[in-house]
Amino acid sequence: MVSSPGPGSRRSLRGLYALNFLMADVQGGLGPYLTVFLAEQRWQPGDIGVAMAVSSVSAAICQIPAGLLVDAARAKRFIAAATGLLIAAACLVIAWRPSFFPVVGAQLAIGAAAALVGPTLAALALGLAGRQRFDATISRTQSFNHGGNFVAASLAGTLGHFVGVLWIFYLICGFAVASAASTLLIRPAEIDHTVARGGDVPRRDGGSARPVAIRDVLKRRDLLIFLGSVALFHFGNAAMLPMAGQVLARAHPHAATLALSACIVVAQLVMVGVAWAVGRATTRGFGRKPIFLVAYALLPVRGLLFSFTTDPYGVIGIEVLDGVAAGIFGVASVMIASDLMRGTGRFNLAQGLMALCIGIGAGLSNVTGEFAVQWFGYSAGFLLLGGIATCALAFFAVLMPETREAA
Questions:
Q1: What is the largest CA-CA distance in the chain?
Q2: Rg of the Cα trace of the chain?
Q3: From 41-45, 92-96, 276-280, the region with the lowest mean pLDDT
Q4: 295-328 burial, b for 16+ CB within 10 Å, e for fewer?
């Protein structure tokens, strides 16, 4: 019999948590700061929407190959380090050449690299922790992830306000180098690559059961409903904070970066607690669906509130709702994907498919929202996204089954 790796050691788990903490800022690249930076460069809202959407579309195209690569690859530490550094290099291109084609090219690279980050981090968590400890471990990794965003946003707001938005790009590079170094703490021998891809049925000769055929995975009704729910969630949500950043940049140009950083800081701080709370709730027997419904229900409220205010304090307060919704999504979505893919050997393919739907939803959100703003104004743009979020809530509530019992 070939023995499988045991549960990850404290050193490896600390490396995993450090990677999630440091990769948080690297994975998102500039995020909503890009919209502020491009607005300062006198870009039109439609062009900003295209630049934001390009990254999402690039990530969408690369998601399925990324999931298949992570399922097959044993060099998961290298993938995590290399993609972070590529994102950092692309951010430097944007900083040094903020014209249309260099920015679009850099956004393409960011999307392609970011497609690998989510599946790799989730696979490392599952491979190190094992299935029985996965719920608790993924909630902790998400808490560290949001903690990293909290620290990064705090530093970014300070740098952007007192030194300039340009220095936020260099901050991302520092996080990228540190994230690459943190992968050295993870011991490769402790990663169970069979469990990491969602396969937990060994053969009698000690080898791994063969993964389920991709076409059979794509025929699973519950998976397709879940993926549709994910796309609709981000269709209604993704463009809200970038659009709020543009509102602040127009109404309060001297305080926009600091106020936007405060939005992100508040949201990420809330997400840390929410991610921990979701982990506690699931270990005490709560189902995935009722927890996830809370996240969906908050999105329409957020869109409605954004349509009524340009006050920085009001925008910051509204972002508390985003903290709750995104904190739930980050943990519960990975748990549901793990439930649906148990025993198939296609967990990271499901992660790639989920990220593909996130990319599609985010791309549609940015393009639809920004052109609605350009043609009808910011209030109309927020209300449109809120209406889409209401449809997402109804879709998930009616069609998505509970997955905890099936797992």
A1: 67
A2: 20
A3: 41-45
A4: bbbbbbebbbbbbebeebeebbebbbbbbbbbbb
Prediction pTM value:
0.70
DSSP 189: G
Three-point CA angle 316, 317, 321, nearest 5°? 105
Give the Cα separation of 249 and 245 in Å (integer).
Answer: 6
Q: What share of the chain is helix, strand, coil (3-state, %, to 5)?
A: 80, 0, 20
Distances 125 to 76, 233, 351, 372 between C-alpha atoms, Å: 11, 24, 13, 40
Report which of 237, 246, 260, 268 is spatially closest to residue 363, judged by C-alpha positions.
237
* Residue (of 283, 312, 296) closest to 138 by Cα position: 283
222 contacts 365 by C-beta, under 8 angstroms: no
The pLDDT of residue 13 is above 70: yes
| Dihedral (Cα; 396, 400, 405, 407), 10-degree rounding | -100
Is 394 in contact with 231 (CB distance < 8 Å)? no
Domains of the chain: 10-193+212-399 (1.20.1250.20)
Paired tokens of 305:
């509130």
> Where does residue 200 fall: left (phi above 0), alpha (psi -120 to 50 degrees), or beta otherwise?
alpha
Gap between the Cα atoms of 207 and 194, Å rounded: 9
For the chain, give the mean pLDDT: 78
Q: Which two tokens stand for residue 104?
A: 């679009």
361 touches 235 (CB < 8 A): yes
Asked if residues 362 and 238 have their Cβ atoms less than 8 Å apart, the reply is yes
Q: Are the C-beta atoms of residues 383 and 315 closer than 8 Å to each other? A: no
pLDDT in tens, 211-264: 777 788 788 888 899 999 999 999 988 878 778 777 776 766 666 666 766 777
**pLDDT tens digit sequence for 60-73:** 788 788 878 887 77
CA 188 – CA 180 distance, rounded (Å) = 15
